């Protein structure tokens, strides 16, 4: 069983300016993403301690270079304090073992139903999403355990940092929040003009 992680981390959310200001003022809540290709399953996605990458994503989305169901008109970065709580932390070995076990269970279930396994293809990570959602389903219906509050994983993205490197230019950690109560508050990241020139 993964350890509970009661500590808090600074996270950053790529979004439209109008939504960010509504959330900061308490007029709206962030909605979970529920796409079939969401690699950490359904939830609210944050960049952990990486406002620059959050800004890049928001800017690229506004220019049509990053796909998302919600088009960003005015790119903006919203800061958040997130408590990890009961976290499926996919940089822990035990969590990876849970992932592998879930894949095997999902594969067996789908095979018995005579259906086809979803596949990852480029940025479309339907297999990863299905495995994570299967973990939630089994945890709730079979194991009678509380749902995970958050899911955390490293992600290798972009070109190699230098020739022959395993480090990439856009390497980052993402957190997918399942339990909105883990979001303890929101803030504007500083320097304001550095991360939110549209403010």
Q: How would you characterize this protein structure?
A:
The protein has helices at 17-24, 51-62, 93-112, 126-141, 192-195, and strands at 4-16, 44-48, 75-89, 120-121, 124-125, 150-155, 172-177, 183-187. It is of the alpha+beta class and 199 residues long. The strands form two sheets. The protein has a five-stranded mixed barrel. Strands 4-5 form a two-stranded antiparallel sheet. A hairpin with a 2-residue loop joins strand 4 (120-121) and strand 5 (124-125). Helix 3 (93-112) crosses helix 4. The longest helix has 20 residues, at 93-112. The model has no long low-confidence stretch (mean pLDDT 92).
Question: How would you summarize this macromolecular structure in one to three sentences?
Answer:
This protein has helices at 17-24, 51-62, 93-112, 126-141, 192-195, and strands spanning 4-16, 44-48, 75-89, 120-121, 124-125, 150-155, 172-177, 183-187.
Attribute tags:
single chain, 5 helices, alpha+beta, 199 residues, two-stranded antiparallel ribbon, five-stranded mixed β-barrel
